[in-house]
Amino acid sequence: MSDPNNKPGLLQVLENLKNLPANAKASFSRRGPADGSRRTRAQTVFNNVFMHIHTVRIHRWSLKPTFTFGLGVASAASFIILAVTGIALMIYYEPSTTGAYESVKNITFVVPGGRLIRNVHRWAAYMMVVTVFLHMIRVFYTNSYKKPREFNWVLGVILFVLTLALSFTGYCLPWDQLAYWAITIGANIAGSPVEVTDALGVTHLVDVGAMQKELMLGSKFVGGPALLRFYWAHCILLPVAMIVLILAHVWRVRKDGGLSRPSDITDEDLKGTPIEELAEEAFSEKSRKSYGLMCVVRNKTAAVDRGPERTVMSWPHLFNAEMLIFAVLLVVLLILGLLVDAPLKELANPSVPENPAKAPWYFLAMQEIISYSAFCGGMVMPGLTVVFLMGIPFLDREEGDSGRWFVGDGVKRTTIKTTIVSSIVIIGMLAFTVTFGWLRNWFPDINQIWITIVNPGTVLMSFFVVIAFAVIAKTRSTRLGMTVLFTYFLVSFVILTYFALVHRGPNWDFYWWPSLWPTH
Amino acid sequence: MIKKLLLVCSIAIVALLGIEAVKLVVTPEYKTHQKRYKKMLVEMAVTADEKAAADAYGIKLRQLVCPDLGTTDRCISCHAAIEDSRVTNGVKPLVSHPHGLLVDHDIRKIGCTVCHDGQGLATNKKEAHANEIHFWEKIRLQGELVQANCLRCHHIESLPEQKTIQLGHKLFVENGCRGCHKIGNSGGFLGPDLTLIGDASFHLKAPVGHNRQEEIGKFNHNVNLAYLFESVKNPTANAEDSKMIDNHFSDEEALALAVYLKSFQTKKVPDSLQAFDKNIPVASGRDIFLAHCSACHGSEGQGAPLDETDKLGPSLANEAFQSIATPEFVKAMVIDPGSSIMPAWGKSGGLSEIEIDKVVAYVLSLRKYPEEKDGDAEYVGNPTYGKIRFESRCAGCHGIDGDYEIDLIGPTLTSPEFKTYATPHFLETTIRNGRAGTAMPSWYFLENKEVKDIVAFLSGRREQAPPLAECLEAAAQPQAAEHGKSMFQTRCASCHGFEAEGRIGPSLNTPELQVLGSNEFFHRTITHGREGTAMGGWAHLSATEVGSIMAYLRTFPKGTIRTAAHKAVASESQGKVNFDRVCAQCHGPDGVGHIGPAIGGRDFLASVDDQFLREMISHGRSGTGMRSNLQGTSGFAGLSASEIDEVISYLRVLETKPFSTIGRTVTAGDIEVGRDLFARTCAQCHGPAGSGGSGPGIGRPGFLATVSDGFLEGTIANGRTGTEMRGFSPGQHALADLAEPEVRAIVAYLRSGIDHDKLVPREIIGTPERGAMLFKQQCVSCHGDKDGESFAPWLANPKYLAAVGNPYLQATMSMGHGANMRSMIRGGSGIVEMTGRDINDIIAYLRSDLKNDDK
Fold first, then answer.
1. Distances from the Cα of B670 to the Cαs of B591, B593, B676, B744, B757, in angstroms?
2. Element (H, E) at B305
3. Do B48 and B133 fall into the same domain?
4. pLDDT reading at B309 higher than 60
5. pLDDT at A233 over 90
6. Whether the Cβ atoms of residue A402 and residue A260 lie closer than 8 Å to each other
7. Contact indicator for B179, B295 with CB cutoff of 8 Å
8. For residue B778, is it within any domain?
9. Rounded-to-integer distance, Cα B576 and Cα B646, Å
């Protein structure tokens, strides 16, 4: 036979060498010729191990900037930037109490590009917390936690907690004054169950607080073991968990039918999103391809019984959008990194506590309620908050449309009203405690357990739970009740963060402005 | 659209990364400087080696790693020319290190930040100098401020050229900062511990005054230095109720002090790198005093007010204190005064015993002796002035005119027996030196003229003795001898025996004495006395008395003279040999007296001629222990006439020599018997072992060193007229009759037998309840009832009372104490007029438990 590959001996080898580049290229991609056809584009996506987590086609609604604002992608992009800069930083960082600070200084001063990488890492961390938070807001207010997306919402809440944990563990690594006292406070929060066991008088039998604290610190005191533990959590444990859960989260998006969409999409809605040339082509109702055998999908499937008229190829549109978000994020982070240095204070000094020792900004709201009761503010309230957040999809089982902002009757109105009422009530409560104090000021000998149970955090929470129930009772809508509670959570987070950032000074006393703090 | 945006973003990313790359590669600060330096190297290169080195000079990050110090200093990346002495007029940062300091300070061993602070890890100027980086505490120091860090390795004494820190150190010592501030292990407690003040975090210690921003700016944001500057310049800035003394330092002084204080830091330089300076001078007592005590007690011990507390650090140099304070008292007070203000220097204050001893010696050296004035040596005391001076200084304790009163603190000075025994020398010595262990202070500060006047007053009251002619006239009266006998038995028998047979004093009835003793002899001996023996000059007797006594003495039968009358001319040295062999065992070495009378004294020898001596020596005195010594007589020694003449010659030599029995043991007596007798007879007034009680402390070394045995014998035998001291010879109507051996035994015990451990503080007899009342009336207004209540020292302080003796208290109340405490005794300053009894009552109150009541 005349087989091009069947030449005699050496000639065959030469022939093979000549064809090597083309053959190698062809072996790399299973895509086939780059002819711009939809088939090729589909193959590009589902043949690639990294990209095939995306669908081949994507609905134009999902690409609407004013729908998602790209927040989910931004969160993931931040995470990738963090991972890359973090791995770079790991080359030089030394996780020992004697070497950490100096290694961070050396990264900043000596390692070429070290200062920029460190700054970008720090700003990306803050950015990720912000984008994750905003992403959660987006998902809630677009009602996108409804069936079948409840579990994805739960995964999202877990990812939010992981983000905060990663941010906190990273904050503690430079072993400067900020880091040291942040760990101290964190450890004492971990130890705060002692408030309850003391009140019950059972501390000598089972000291949960001490166990938790020792678990966190690897010792009874803040020191080398704590740093190493935090380093391990920050670089191995939490990132691995994060990656696994991100994968699950993104996979669930796909399996839950993509990003949520309202049932009443008009062309007007889709203005500004990419459009494909063949979108006008009419298709028969039923597609010839059956996707049913590829996986088991609950509820509405992606494209069965429906034509692809409002979907576009993921390659290039979805990837363009993702790249853009990534690029914008990178530009912002680079500018921030070049202009503003990540904070670093003096070397950790156990004999000089920071006063005030403030947590990183995302924990300031929590620190404000901790100032009344460490156990309640540090463990109970955050725990309840996380449980509540996770429970939203299960407390609100209303069938409702998802995919639009403030979709649903009265949601927007309720949100606005709740924002106003929460602001007033929260500010009022803060003013009250600043002026009159709380239980300890009026009854100096009172048992701490009363304050654990009755403090501004619990009082406000109870107040708004009652209001939520009233709203549910009045409007018969669990969605509105959840809206009230979620909005209250947001508003309280924002206001308490601002309050603790600006108006709390040494000894956690109230000051109108930082310039009024006692001389420093 | 998206693609366009993507393009823009991508370009932006590339541009931003490009900016970073440029920053890294092209424009790091140090590269600019090193390139300039390389050019300079090339220009300055002369030899081929230098040229090659200049060409090979690499532009790279340079650092000095010092593992001993734990530093990594990258200063030399920009300061590339720091070790290059050729660069004299460089443009910063390419300058060589000034003052040639790098010759001794190898930067490869110690780096830069050990002296200059700053952030050595940084690679740009702003972060390396760290003036604006608010969290970096150890900001780079420049110029004179660097001297603060010299003491990390050097001792202050070895850095005389560092003017700023030397001035700071000098001010620190001279202003007594350690009196309130503890540094290291020594110092006071009123102010904060300054041991690590140079390391204080600016979180904890920062200037707070209105002009603090200005001050921080002056020090280029070195908050620690600005804080130190403010603290010394304006002590009330930080705490308005601060008790810190404002020494009104000038700016220059405050800066020097701030720099010196900044040197108090943790020791971060290991021993291997320390510059061990040789010959560190040891601090003298004065240095220690200045550093620790002068803030409260003044740099000359003059006392100083602590402004805001109205408390006075008592003056230590004032005469009253110096005249009465003993080293033991001062040392006890320094070690632990039990005060809320004065640190316990021997305990928490941190001074070693050696240092305390030095300070105590220095404190006691603060005495200022009066200057020698012209005419001092020849000045003769004026009794009239002396009387006035006596009344102003002495009468409070010794009684007006020195006469006896009950409960006087000091003994009577006017009894005739005292006057006769107290020679001017005795008086002067006692006044100038005081009496240790008693309330008699050392009046060292009196001028020579004052002392001489007082002595003249006291001794000039020796009445003028009646002249011989008058006495002889009286003796010629009828019944003179009978009167004389009763006179004799009243006045003389205590020593000379009822029948003049001799007791402590020699016998007067021997025929030998009667035939040889002339009227002049007797008259002189009676009125003038014999210095250094128990025979005083009884000048207060009237002519009638003296004459009668002389007449009585003449009633004894006269003997015959058996020896020649010529003057003895013979070998004195041989005479001494003879004397020592034969005579001294009874008459004492040099004839001071022992069992036999003192024959070596001038007073005796001047009143007798050689025949007297020859007769006595040859034939003895019948009926006494003086046997005849001439060979052929039935005496002990068989001296030839020529040998006797030798002895006489020797005695005449002794006449020219000074005769002093003061402080010497002369009398022979049984010490154990004397101990017993003293305890039974004398101690009830004079205290155990003569410590003093209602009678003076005669067992005290201070007293015994100033008197002769004769003084003691005479006083015991005759007592002191007008006081409670009676004569103890039989017939004196005293509490006991002491025979001659018993008197001698007591004297011997006093001289040699007193166990000094048994000397206790003089017992003060007072009524505490009355003392409580007096204390409240007179003392509380200044001394307060509780510690810290008032500006004068708290007297009920148990440590103070344990350290201070009653004599000190008596003396202080009598004399006063410097400018603020006046004399409290009557006749003193007139503020308070207390008697000796009042003073004793107050002391009794202080010593009792009453003072702890009603608190």
1. 21, 16, 10, 8, 21
2. strand B304-306
3. yes
4. no
5. yes
6. yes
7. yes
8. yes
9. 8
Structural domain boundaries, residue B225: 145-273
Q: How far apart are CA A326 and CA A131, in angstroms?
A: 13
In a domain, B564, yes or no: no
Rounded distance between C-alpha atoms, residue B740 and residue B742, angstroms: 5
For residue A305, the model assigns a pLDDT of: 46
Q: Which residue of B has its CA nearest to A325?
A: B6
Q: Which of B725, B805, B799 is nearest to B760 (CA)?
A: B805
d(CA B512, CA B558): 7
Within 8 A by CB and 6+ apart from B23, the residues are none
For the entire predicted model, the pTM comes to 0.77
Contact indicator for B579, B663 with CB cutoff of 8 Å: no
Encode B292-322: b = buried (16+ Cβ within 10 Å), e = exposed: bbbbbbbbebbbbebeeeebbbbbbbbbbbb
The CA-atom distances, in angstroms, between A183 and each of A164, A194, A359, A397, B617 are 14, 18, 9, 40, 110
Look at residue B87 and tell me if it is in a domain. yes
- What distance lies between CA B503 and its chain's CA centroid? 45
Question: Which pLDDT score is estimated for A422?
Answer: 93
Contact A323 B6 (CB under 8 A): yes
What is the nearest CA distance from B115 to chain A, expressed in angstroms?
20
- With cut-offs at 50, 70 and 90, classify the pLDDT of residue B28: confident
Nearest CA of chain B to the CA of A342: how many Å?
13
How many Å is the Cα radius of gyration of chain A? 27
| Cα A180 from Cα A351, distance rounded (Å) | 11
pLDDT-based confidence at residue B855 (cuts at 50, 70, 90): very low
The dihedral of CA B539, B545, B546, B552: what is its sign? negative
- Measure the CA–CA gap between A344 and B136, rounded to whole angstroms: 10
Question: Are the C-beta atoms of B280 and B214 separated by less than 8 Å?
Answer: no
B22 touching chain A per CB within 8 A: no
HSE on the CB side for A485, CA within 13 Å? 26
Classify burial at B476, counting beta carbons within 10 Å of its beta carbon; exposed 0-12, middle 13-18, buried 19 or more: exposed
A335 and B16 within 8 Å at the Cβ level: the answer is yes
Domains: count for chain B: 8
Domains annotated on chain A, with CATH? 58-266+316-516 (1.20.810.10)
Which site among B7, B16, B23 would you substitute to test the A interface, given the most A Cβ atoms closer than 10 Å to its Cβ? B16
**Is the CB of A109 less than 8 angstroms away from the CB of B127?**
yes
CA-nearest residue to A348 within chain B is B135
Domain for residue B488, yes or no? Answer: yes
pLDDT band per the 50, 70, 90 thresholds, residue A328:
very high
Is A200 exposed, middle or buried, given 0-12, 13-18 or 19+ CB atoms closer than 10 A?
exposed
Question: Are A110 and B3 in contact (CB < 8 Å)?
Answer: no
Q: Do B16 and A331 touch (CB under 8 A)?
A: yes
Is B9 close to A330, i.e. CB distance below 8 A? yes
Assigned token pair, B275: 């510059």
Tell me the shortest Cα–Cα distance from A379 to chain B, in angstroms. Answer: 31
> Amino acid identity of B310?
D
DSSP B329-344: HHHHHHH----SSS--
Q: Residues 6 or more apart from B764 whose CB is under 8 A from it?
A: B806, B810, B840, B843, B844, B847
Residue A130's pLDDT is 96
CB A166, CB A239: distance < 8 Å: yes
DSSP A176: B
The residue assigned the tokens 């601090």 is B283
Q: Which of A284, A281, A259, A298 is nearest to A60 (CA)?
A: A259
Residue B295 shares a structural domain with residue B335:
yes
CB contact under 8 A, B124 and A345: no
Nearest-by-Cβ selection for B10 from A327, A349, A352: A327
**What CATH number has the domain bearing residue B205?**
1.10.760.10
